[in-house]
């Protein structure tokens, strides 16, 4: 036995000399395909069924001999094993399609997702010594030998071989006199023209050949075929045989004894075996709910693409690199396939947000049932669904080893394929299983000996597939081709997947140690350059930055008589404001018993006293802490106690509200007189001292208090002053609520520029007409607010808007999403202004990221978040804490001098929200974002606004973005009810038709993300900080009547004549009188092929054409009847 196994090893591997019997097949050069061949040979020779995993574990001659002996002692026979028979008399009979052929047949239909573009293959083959007549004879011999090349398909889901091929259309085109550039351009055009040719599968031919003479010693053979008749293995075999027939005109063309129809019948018989039943059980247990479509960044939903265009990405890996990879595989007891499969899988998962993905792994289905099985040409393949999981922190070698074991386990259950599993899952619960990423390796296929023909180019397309990847050998090493749905992905994304594959293989060769303990997968060189602008800033405070005191004292010293504040029609000079602040600062020092660092609270209505109080705090070296004057007494007490506040600055009219606070000194700022001293003193402080404390909402109902440092504040003030070109001639409008951090810039941003601040009257602080009056009267140049305030202003019916707002030259808006629609309105209203979107959580100091809105942004669907300001980095991290590549969603973390040291008195919250990345302390914003191709950031929504409905993860703000892009909609919001129903709210001038809304959303969103209910509002309810009040929306949803589904009319009632005919059709097709009208299609035993037959009968009986998806996605007779009846009425 050992000698026989030794001989089989040598024959398969082509080993001439002797070798040790304890060396594994892999170490001797065995590949995945060769291991499969070895197993088949050993199983047939010794009448056993060696488990695939044992082929790896006991892969030496000695090890396999032991396994075979063990299996012989414990042999279990399958009494129902399928028997194979050859039936030459049935050669031209009609026979069934295979499951994969059926899937390809359905994929040809225009109504299927990414369908309408048939599965097909194309290659270019170079011949140097070309004879057209001899090539034509070789092609005829090839067609005569292989029945499959003379096969057509019938509308009832069957196929049939023709005795004669008919006339062979094989032309030679001579372009050898063309100039090289023109010739190249023509050949590319011809390549696409041939590849895009759609064969009529109901008639011959389904294969074509053409020849183009480019030079006396170079002719290209263009070989193309429909994918329903030829798989990848057969494609390569055809080229090899064509080469042999062309080189040796006397070579025999004996047809294989086995027929493709024999093979198909054998596959059917397998279904009634014990092995098939056991394999079915294995796969159904394995499947559970894993198989959902990949979470790759898409330009649009696949269902929106009507005409599929493909874009090919090619990456070449040198022979030296490949040899290094093969050595790496051998050293780690891995097959080369396991390595490249893992590399490809990780290259895809790198761009998937949830790091899990199902890969469609094609396999050759060529059981050793006949000596001529290897000669058979046809669609002898299927696929397995391989669940890739990169969520665990495992090294590359661990992942590859696990994948190899998984592949071995899968191959042990090789009678139940991906097509079977998808059909079973559809029957079970109508699950829409999608595995649109395909990876095929032809590397393990033994290289054919080239004689006269050399393949130089290959392109494939598989219907309903997003990315069809093939790894294959070429003369210089290996190459990866990826044929991608062009309108589904940004080209930069698919290029990056290819780059990751190539660079990772090169890294395995150059630095294998990186893959022993680490994943080895990182950003490509190009990606590193792209994200550099967001991740490589100097985060240390620049020595050139002034102190906060130096920044604020400058205008007092240089221009004390200049106007600093305008409030209630009165102008206050810098001298008056600063001297009043100095007096308040002295009272603060006395009240606190010296310099206080715990912060003084400020409890004031909108007026100049707010800036006086803030300055007073800064002058005496303490933080100012604005409190909302509408805050309930209990919250007020909790906030001041949590922050350790001992002093509150307020005004006489509000002092009564503070009576419940114990141990707190109250200073009435409206009673403070200006200091007589000319010298205004700022207490010495350090950049790390706290400048102000801001409250933000907390999960407990009580606000969280955030202390922000002077260094971060100074950085924001000086950087924005420089960017906006702010000067003493500017005037700011302070409309932002004092408790919102954007108000800090209204005051200190203005004073840092020596400019003036205009305060609206407290009684009219949210009145857009008042804002317009102030802008016009005081020639306001700088606007800073949340987008909602700008929307209120642009929607107000203000006379002479353009004239009244003409003075504004800078608009900064942030704190919420800015839609392209609103941006356009702002640009129209403020004709002379530069619009800038700013952002950044309160925890990172006012704002730290910025984007100047362009015309291109407004024409698009979103406004980018932007790029970070100086001394700030934005890290977008995946669920494993690794940097995301461009176009891939992740959680945004901020690092830099603006980041707070943490919430006051909330250690547990601090542990949750702050962490270290790459040696930098960062804040978890809770926002989802992605890097764009220019390195800027796009914000995608909140991580806590993700919901799951029917197992689908949904980003509410993604729906909102789609709504905002609809013509007529000014703003929108989406909520989820307790019953997990999506409800959309929008503002617009007029009610928009429900059908118009849904039709527009269908072009942008998958069906499961389209809201059920829609409500138009005159205005969005807002919180005090100007953000959409979702709690108020939930209350509105409860009281508003949702859109109801209309009831069926009598003509559409359940038991109709149409249903009766449909029931009869189903009983005939399924051959079952027990089928009832309340059973769904899958319960009847339906699958894709029976769906095709039902469609044919419906067309015949009713003259109505339904789609395959009408059958599969609405699987009840009553639903089909409705579609048919409505179609008949329209007709």
Descriptive account of the structure:
With 1131 residues, the protein is an alpha/beta fold. Among the domains are: 72 residues, ACP-like (Non-ribosomal Peptide Synthetase Peptidyl Carrier Protein, Chain A, Orthogonal Bundle), CATH 1.10.1200.10; 166 residues, Chloramphenicol acetyltransferase-like domain (Chloramphenicol Acetyltransferase, 2-Layer Sandwich); 228 residues, Chloramphenicol Acetyltransferase (2-Layer Sandwich); 201 residues, 3-Layer(aba) Sandwich (Rossmann fold), CATH 3.40.50.12780; 81 residues, ACP-like (Non-ribosomal Peptide Synthetase Peptidyl Carrier Protein, Chain A, Orthogonal Bundle). Strands 16-15-24-23-25-26-27-28-29 form a nine-stranded mixed β-sheet, with helices on both faces. About 1% of the residues have low confidence.
């Amino acid at each position: 036995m050992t000698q026989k196994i030794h001989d089989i090893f040598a024959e398969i591997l082509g080993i001439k000399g002797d070798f040790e019997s304890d060396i594994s097949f892999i170490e001797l050069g065995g590949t995945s395909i060769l291991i499969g061949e070895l197993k088949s040979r050993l199983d047939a020779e010794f009448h056993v069924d060696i488990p695939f995993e044992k082929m790896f574990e006991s892969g030496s001659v000695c090890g396999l001999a032991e396994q075979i002996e063990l299996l012989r002692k414990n042999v279990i026979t399958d009494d129902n094993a399928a028997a194979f028979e050859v039936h030459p008399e049935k050669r031209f009979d009609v026979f069934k399609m295979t499951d994969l052929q059926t899937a390809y047949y359905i994929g040809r239909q225009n109504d299927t997702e990414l369908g309408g573009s048939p599965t097909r293959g194309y290659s270019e083959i170079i011949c140097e010594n070309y004879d057209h007549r001899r090539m034509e004879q070789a092609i005829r011999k090839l067609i005569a030998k292989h029945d499959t090349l003379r096969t057509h398909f019938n509308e009832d889901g069957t196929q049939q071989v023709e005795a004669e091929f008919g006339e062979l259309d094989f032309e030679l085109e001579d372009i050898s006199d063309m100039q090289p550039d023109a010739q190249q351009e023509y050949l590319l055009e011809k390549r696409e023209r041939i590849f895009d040719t759609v064969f009529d599968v109901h008639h011959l031919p389904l294969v074509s050949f053409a020849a183009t003479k480019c030079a006396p010693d170079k002719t290209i053979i263009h070989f193309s075929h429909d994918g329903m008749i030829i798989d990848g293995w057969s494609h390569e075999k055809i080229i090899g045989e064509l080469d042999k027939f062309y080189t040796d005109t006397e070579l025999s063309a004996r047809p294989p004894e086995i027929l493709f129809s024999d093979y198909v019948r054998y596959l059917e018989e397998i279904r009634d075996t014990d092995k098939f039943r056991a394999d079915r059980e294995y796969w159904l247990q394995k499947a559970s709910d894993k198989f959902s479509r990949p979470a790759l960044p898409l330009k649009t939903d696949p269902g929106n693409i009507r005409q599929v265009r493909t874009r090919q990405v090619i990456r070449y890996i040198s022979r030296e690199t490949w040899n290094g990879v093969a050595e790496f595989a051998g050293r780690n007891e891995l097959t080369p396939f396991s390595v490249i499969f893992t590399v490809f899988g990780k290259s895809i998962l790198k761009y998937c947000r949830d790091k899990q993905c199902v890969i469609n792994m094609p396999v050759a289905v060529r059981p050793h049932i006949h000596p001529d099985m290897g000669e058979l040409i046809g669609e002898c393949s299927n696929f397995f669904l391989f669940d890739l999981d990169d969520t665990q922190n495992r090294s590359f070698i661990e992942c590859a080893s696990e994948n190899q074991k998984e592949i071995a386990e899968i191959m042990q259950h090789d009678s139940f394929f991906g097509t079977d599993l998808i059909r079973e899952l559809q029957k079970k619960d109508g699950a829409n299983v999608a595995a649109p990423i395909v990876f095929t390796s032809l590397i393990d296929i033994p290289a054919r000996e080239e004689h006269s023909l050399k393949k130089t180019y290959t392109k494939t397309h598989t219907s309903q597939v997003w990315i069809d990847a093939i790894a294959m050998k070429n003369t210089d090493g290996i190459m990866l081709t990826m044929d991608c749905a062009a309108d589904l992905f940004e080209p930069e994304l698919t290029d990056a997947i290819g780059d990751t594959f190539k660079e990772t293989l090169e890294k395995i060769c150059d630095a294998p140690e990186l893959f022993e303990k680490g994943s080895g997968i990182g950003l490509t060189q190009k990606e590193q350059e792209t994200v550099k602008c967001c991740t490589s800033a100097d985060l240390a405070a620049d020595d050139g930055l002034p102190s906060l005191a130096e920044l604020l004292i400058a205008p007092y010293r240089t221009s004390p008589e200049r106007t600093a504040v305008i409030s209630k029609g009165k102008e206050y000079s810098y001298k008056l404001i600063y001297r009043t602040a100095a007096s308040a600062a002295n009272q603060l020092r006395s009240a606190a018993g010296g310099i206080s660092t715990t912060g003084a609270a400020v409890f004031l209505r909108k007026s100049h006293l707010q800036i006086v109080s803030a300055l007073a705090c800064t002058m005496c070296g303490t933080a100012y802490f604005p409190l909302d004057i509408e805050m309930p007494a209990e919250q007020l007490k909790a906030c001041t106690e949590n922050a350790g506040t001992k002093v509150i600055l307020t005004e006489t009219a509000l002092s009564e509200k503070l009576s419940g606070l114990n141990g707190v000194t109250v200073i009435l700022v409206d009673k403070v007189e200006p200091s007589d001293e000319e010298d205004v003193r700022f207490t010495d402080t350090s950049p790390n001292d706290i400048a102000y404390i801001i409250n933000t909402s907390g999960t407990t109902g009580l606000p969280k208090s955030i202390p922000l440092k002077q260094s971060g504040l100074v950085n924001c003030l000086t950087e924005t002053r420089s960017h906006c070109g702010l000067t003493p001639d500017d005037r700011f409008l302070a409309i932002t609520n004092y408790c919102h951090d954007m108000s800090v810039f209204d005051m200190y941003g203005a004073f840092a520029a020596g400019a003036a601040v205009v305060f609206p009257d407290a009684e009219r602080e949210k009145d857009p007409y008042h804002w317009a009056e102030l802008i016009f009267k005081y020639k306001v140049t700088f606007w800073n607010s949340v987008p909602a305030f700008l929307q209120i202003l642009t929607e107000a019916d203000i006379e002479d808007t353009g004239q009244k707002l003409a003075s504004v030259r800078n608009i900064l808006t942030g704190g919420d999403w800015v839609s392209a629609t609103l941006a356009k309105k702002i640009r129209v209203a403020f004709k002379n202004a530069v619009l800038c979107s700013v952002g950044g959580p309160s925890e990172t100091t006012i704002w730290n990221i910025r984007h100047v809105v362009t015309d291109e942004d407004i024409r698009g669907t979103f406004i980018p978040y932007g790029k970070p300001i100086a001394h700030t980095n934005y890290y977008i991290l995946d669920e494993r804490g690794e940097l995301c590549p461009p176009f891939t969603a992740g959680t945004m973390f901020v690092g830099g001098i603006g980041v707070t040291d943490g919430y006051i008195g909330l250690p547990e919250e601090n542990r949750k929200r702050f962490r270290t990345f790459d040696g930098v302390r960062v804040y978890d914003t809770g926002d989802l974002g992605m890097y764009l191709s220019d390195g800027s950031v796009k914000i995608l929504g909140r991580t806590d606004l993700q919901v799951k409905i029917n197992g689908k993860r949904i980003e509410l703000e993604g729906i909102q973005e789609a709504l905002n892009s609809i013509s007529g909609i000014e703003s929108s919001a989406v909520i989820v009810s307790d019953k997990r129903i999506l409800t959309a709210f929008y503002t617009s001038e007029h009610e928009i038709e429900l059908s118009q809304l849904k039709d527009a959303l269908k072009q942008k969103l998958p069906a499961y993300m389209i809201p059920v209910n829609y409500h138009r509002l005159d205005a969005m309810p807002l919180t005090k900080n100007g953000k959409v009040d979702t709690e108020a929306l939930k209350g509105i949803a409860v009281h508003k009547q949702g859109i109801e589904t209309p009831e069926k009319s009598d003509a559409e009632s359940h038991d109709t004549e149409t249903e009766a005919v449909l029931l009869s059709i189903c009983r005939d097709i399924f051959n079952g009188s027990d089928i009832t009208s309340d059973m769904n299609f899958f319960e009847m035993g339906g699958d894709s092929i029976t769906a095709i037959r039902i469609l044919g009968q419906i067309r015949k009986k009713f003259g109505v054409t339904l789609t395959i998806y009408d059958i599969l996605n609405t699987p009840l007779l009553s639903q089909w009847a409705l579609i048919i009846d409505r179609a008949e009425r329209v007709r």
